[in-house]
Design a protein that fits this description.
The complex is a heterodimer of chains A (684) and B (318).
Chain A: H1 9-29, H2 32-49, H3 58-76, H4 82-96, H5 103-123, H6 127-147, H7 156-180, E1 204-205, H8 209-213, E2 219-226, E3 236-242, E4 244-245, E5 250-251, H9 260-263, E6 264-265, H10 273-281, E7 286-293, E8 300-301, E9 307-308, E10 314-317, E11 321-324, E12 332-339, H11 350-355, H12 365-377, H13 381-394, E13 398-399, H14 410-418, E14 420-421, H15 423-436, E15 441-448, E16 451-452, E17 458-462, E18 466-474, E19 478-482, H16 484-488, H17 490-495, H18 497-503, H19 508-516, H20 522-543, H21 547-558, H22 563-588, H23 596-610, H24 621-631, H25 636-659, H26 669-683
Parallel strand pairs in A: 13-14
Antiparallel strand pairs in A: 1-5, 2-7, 2-17, 3-15, 4-5, 6-10, 7-12, 8-11, 9-12, 10-11, 15-18, 16-17, 18-19
Helix pairs in contact in A: 1-2, 1-4, 1-5, 1-6, 1-7, 2-4, 3-4, 4-5, 5-6, 6-7, 7-22, 12-15, 13-15, 14-15, 18-19, 23-26, 24-25, 25-26
Chain B: H1 6-18, E1 24-26, E2 33-36, H2 38-57, H3 60-84, E3 88-95, E4 97-98, E5 102-110, E6 117-123, E7 130-134, E8 139-147, E9 152-155, E10 159-163, E11 170-176, E12 181-185, E13 193-194, E14 196-197, E15 205-206, E16 218-220, H4 232-236, E17 242-244, E18 255-257, H5 266-282, E19 287-290, E20 295-299, H6 302-314
Parallel strand pairs in B: 4-12, 18-19
Antiparallel strand pairs in B: 1-3, 2-11, 3-5, 5-8, 6-7, 6-10, 9-12, 10-11, 13-15, 14-18, 16-17, 19-20
Classes of the chains: A alpha+beta (684), B alpha+beta (318).
Chain lengths: 684, 318
């Protein structure tokens, strides 16, 4: 049997570092057992390298693999799909470390290491993880260099340095390809895993749920205004509308005879009539902004009213919302134009008005009676609405994150007994009061406000900015936004949740701060906002670079975008970058500083060339002397002495540091020069 | 020489034009070939898979990673090429051998003043490769074995010098003809009659080593006898150490003569002469060699033996 291949020690360090670091993100993301399996295999591998253990036999390897397959099946219920696939890949890859009998295995492991490292980016794409992947690249590349250098006495650090040079030189072309290689449409449908439920809006709302959401400081989305920014009170980010009320819970719903496709328009493909009407009636100040939405696993997108967009796979819904064609599983960037007045002068379909009047057959008798009474007293819908709003403003309502529990008649209980609630309580009771008085009303759920990043020009909208408000239908105006919470806690709208809770004297304000981890240290706050600035730009420039941005950019460069022109551009780019490095690496080379006796050698060499002696480009000194002596025997004696002197000097220099050899005086600069002169004289 | 197919001949002619034989060859872009290795193909395959993944998941970072692998490969082309380019190969010494066995040729590998070359593999087709690294401005020497397939000058095949450093994704190589040859002496073949003249025994010398028990040329070993003169066959036959004794011709001038082997094949004659040269040298007996066109006067010693063998090796060779 052939000798078992031993990874050189200097390469092994990088091999084990690279493979461990590439596995760590998955060890942290996936089930706990992955970490155990990976660490077990890695430790084994290290002990093998140290000669403490042997490589495991086939039976053991197969049983470890079978265990990993079984555990994957247990944790994910399947062996397919990205999550289970990556888990299996990481296990198999680490197992392969223990099956390294030939040099080929080492190669396969390292090339696979790149692949495992890439899968990290399937799960996360933020700036920090990208930086991490970038750093690990050095180690993997260093390992690859190491196994190509079988000598034993090599310092591992030199490989890392060389790897850094290679990685750095690969970057220009990588960036160029990133910019110009066309973003082809997906080749086939990818089934992404059902991601775990994320914090965020859901398609229904019961009292207490938005308040619950407010305890999270997780980022919902970022907004970057292009041009003028909308003033704070107008920053209502609409996500969903709830039209169905069952007495407790509000849900997103459509009447049975209406299908979802009737109310969604994909303007980049087709504009139905209601959409054209909507475009015509758009009015009011206009804002353009880009939103970078964090993954939600949901379809709905957030935008101010009335949003218009022309982007593939994003639709506009007839209740002035945006929707994505598929659940948002990776961060999504989209650019919207909004007219901040609700459209006027278009009629809502009859089903919409009727559907938004429905109430459960019974329940909340006091509220209904009150609504009927006030509507009868009020001369108009407007006056009635003002009356209800006045109730919220004038009576003692509290804005709180922890409202007391409500009985079966929730609206009655809230309006006439507890009077303490969060935005969903106000929105819900207001909408019920409207419907009870015959005014179509629906709940709108989304976010309100957003915190400005001090470094960038963008807003951060977090989960605690979640909000619910109401829209009512008035025949002469259309849908009109109403925010009863603003009556109770105007600070909520003006300055955000924290302020609102503080001014209400709520003891939860500080608890809230603690819960969401807002730091009191200014330096940490600054660091966090700097980091956020980077993340924002990363998301908007790198992650958000899509086919449309690319086409625009290429149009600017090429004038007209055609496959031929793109192909030529790519070829030219590869050529130019390649040529640049070829010149850098080959033509100039690295000129090491020469020792004085080496300079002396080159002086002799060029002088001989000048005199017409035929010698190769850089023969060894001995060979040089041999060749020249054959052609010019007169100089042979001097050259022999020159060579002796040269070798004496060079040898002394090379070994002086090692054993402090005694210096021989005759081997010095002067003698070397003298012999050169004598030799040259004898030639000419 | 084995027969070559037409394609092989064309290829050889093309190589000869592209990298003409020379005793010193410096590798440059004209002389270096470069192609991906199997691992390089695997590496590109993974880059392609990541590209498809990036497209399908609409994941810009996967795409970027795939582009990174592609550009790393691209950079590796330059670095692999650079590691080989600038290496100078020169023909060095030669260790002759008998035809049918091995000789060796020395190859000098030197680096230019500015660039070091790591992990170069030198090889003749069909023999194991030799690995070496050369630092800037330095020189390394190595002996490569060569099979001596016929008598005379055996020209070396083109040396394959190969490098995969730094990443092993690409293989850069060159096939260099250093115009290097190895001397192949005739295969020694034992013969009974010594084709010698000279001394008083005109009948020629019997082969004292033919295994004749009664041969009085063998006597017991006396400490101080040359090891070369020991008759190992007797030792093997458990008769103790014995030393071969040759009777000196009277005048001590024995000529090994081509003409005395008339009727034999020329190669056979040379082989026989070769065997006798070795035998006489071993026994410290002076001998001379007379070939139809050349001769070496009787003498003794290593230089003499080398000269004689050289004459035999090159007899009839242009």
């Amino acid at each position: 049997m052939a000798r078992v291949y031993q990874v050189p020690q200097h390469a092994f360090i990088w091999l084990i570092t690279g493979s461990l670091l590439a596995s760590i993100p998955q060890m942290m993301n996936g089930p706990v057992w992955i970490a155990a399996v990976v660490l077990f295999l890695q430790c084994w591998r290290v002990l093998v390298q140290r000669g403490r253990l042997r490589m495991p036999g086939r039976v053991l390897r197969i049983s470890v693999l079978a265990t990993a397959v079984g555990l994957t099946l247990y944790s994910y219920g399947t062996l397919f799909g990205p999550d289970a696939g990556i888990t299996l890949l990481v296990c198999a890859f680490n197992l392969k470390l223990l099956e390294m009998n030939k040099m080929r295995d080492a190669y396969v492991v390292i090339v696979l290491n790149y692949f495992v490292l890439a899968t990290v980016l399937i799960v996360r794409q933020d700036f920090l993880i990208s930086l991490y992947v970038f750093v690990v690249l050095f180690f993997v590349t260093a390992a690859l260099i190491g196994i190509n250098q079988p000598e034993a006495n090599i310092r591992a650090r030199s490989q890392l340095r060389y790897a850094a040079a290679l990685v750095a030189q690969a970057f220009p072309l990588m960036i160029f390809l990133f910019v110009v290689v066309p973003r082809v449409a997906p080749l086939w449908e990818m089934k992404s895993d059902q991601k775990k439920a994320k914090t965020g809006m859901s398609d229904s709302m019961a009292p207490g749920e938005v308040a619950e959401l407010s305890r999270s400081a997780e980022l919902a989305f970022r907004v970057q205004f292009i041009g003028e920014a909308a003033p704070k009170p107008e920053r209502y980010w609409r996500g969903l509308t709830y039209s169905w009320y069952d007495g407790r819970r509000w849900s997103q719903a459509l009447p049975q005879n209406i299908s979802a496709s009737d109310v969604v328009a994909y303007p980049s493909r087709f504009k139905p009539r209601w959409y054209s009407d909507l475009e015509r009636s758009a009015a009011g100040p206009q804002y353009q902004y880009r939103i970078i939405l964090e993954p939600t696993s949901r379809e709905w997108l957030y935008a101010m009213t009335t949003p218009f967009i022309e982007q593939n796979n994003i639709g506009v819904v007839s209740d002035y919302r945006l929707i994505s064609a598929s659940p948002v599983t990776d961060s999504l960037s989209y650019t919207v134009k909004s007219y901040t007045r609700m459209p006027r002068g278009i009629d809502a379909p009859r089903w919409e008005k009727e559907f938004n009047l429905r109430l459960p057959a019974e329940g909340n008798p006091r509220s209904r009676a009150q609504a009927r009474e006030w509507r009868a007293q009020a001369g108009s819908d407007d006056q009635y609405i003002a009356r209800v709003m006045r109730m919220f403003r004038q009576q003692k309502f509290f804005y709180t994150l922890t409202p007391p529990p409500l009985g079966p008649d929730q609206v009655d209980d809230f309006l006439f007994r507890t009077r303490a609630g969060f935005c969903e309580h106000y929105a819900s009771s207001f909408a019920v009061m409207m419907r009870a008085a015959g005014i179509p009303a629906r709940i709108v759920a989304g976010y309100q406000g957003g915190e400005e990043n001090p470094l960038g020009t963008h807003l951060l909208v977090r989960q605690y900015d979640a909000h619910a408000w109401v829209e009512v239908w008035l025949p002469e105006s259309g849908w009109v936004e109403m925010d009863p919470t603003a009556m109770v806690a105007p600070e909520r709208i003006e300055s955000g949740l924290e302020q609102a809770l503080q001014s209400q004297g709520s003891e939860f304000a500080s608890a809230f701060n603690e819960a969401i981890g807002v730091s009191r240290l200014p330096i940490l706050k600054q660091l966090a906002s700097a980091m956020d600035y980077i993340e924002f730009n990363w998301a908007s420039i790198v992650l958000g670079y899509d086919g449309m941005t690319q086409t625009e950019l290429l149009k600017k460069w090429l004038g007209e975008v055609s496959p031929l022109r793109i192909a030529l551009l790519i070829a030219a780019g590869i050529g130019i970058i390649g040529l640049f490095f070829a010149v850098l690496l080959l033509w100039r080379g690295r000129r090491p500083s020469l020792e004085w006796w080496q300079k002396e050698y080159w002086r002799l060499h060029s002088a001989l060339r000048k005199r017409g002696v035929e010698i190769p480009d850089h023969p060894a000194p001995g060979r040089l002397v041999e060749l020249v002596s054959a052609q010019a025997p007169a100089a042979a004696e001097a050259l022999k002495q020159w060579r002796e002197c040269y070798e004496g000097v060079a040898y002394r220099a090379n070994s002086a540091n090692l054993n402090g050899m005694n210096k021989t005086n005759s081997f010095d600069k002067q003698s070397l020069k003298r012999f050169r002169r004598i030799a040259l004289r004898n030639i000419s | 020489m084995p027969k070559l197919s037409a394609v092989q001949q064309l290829y050889r002619r093309w190589l000869r034009r592209r990298i003409p034989p020379a005793t010193t060859v410096t590798l440059n872009q004209r002389r270096i070939f470069i192609l991906p290795t199997g691992y390089g193909m695997l590496f590109l395959l993974i880059a392609a898979m990541l590209f498809i993944g990036g497209i399908n998941y609409e994941n810009n970072l996967l795409l970027t990673f795939s582009f990174f692998l592609m550009s790393l490969f691209n950079v590796a082309i330059l670095h692999t090429f650079r590691n080989l380019s600038g290496v100078t190969l020169s023909a060095g010494g030669m260790r002759a051998g008998f035809s049918g066995r091995h000789g060796a040729l020395e190859v000098l590998v030197s680096a230019g003043p500015r660039r070091s070359h790591t992990s170069l593999w030198l090889q003749w087709p069909g023999s194991p490769a030799r690995e070496m690294s050369v630092k800037a401005g330095e020189e390394q020497r190595t002996w490569l074995d060569i099979e001596l397939i016929h008598r005379g000058r055996v020209f070396a095949e083109r040396i394959r010098i190969e490098s995969r450093y730094p990443l092993g994704l690409l293989r850069a190589w060159s096939l260099v003809d250093l115009d290097h040859w190895c001397l192949a002496w005739p295969t020694p073949i034992e013969s009974a009659e010594c084709p010698a003249s000279g001394g008083d025994d005109d009948e020629g010398l019997h082969n004292s080593l033919a295994g004749n028990d009664d041969f009085d040329g063998l006597r017991s070993y006396i400490p101080g006898d040359s090891l070369r003169a020991i008759n190992w066959k007797s030792l093997a036959a458990e008769r103790g150490l014995q030393t071969k004794v040759f009777t000196d011709p009277a005048e001590g001038r024995r000529w090994l003569e081509w003409d005395r082997l008339a009727g034999m094949e020329p190669e056979m004659r040379l082989s026989s002469l070769c065997w006798w040269v070795l035998s006489l040298d071993e026994a410290n007996q002076p001998y001379g060699l007379r070939l139809p066109d050349q001769e070496v006067a009787p003498a003794i010693g290593l230089d003499h033996k080398q000269q004689t063998l050289r004459l035999l090796a090159l007899f009839g060779v242009q």
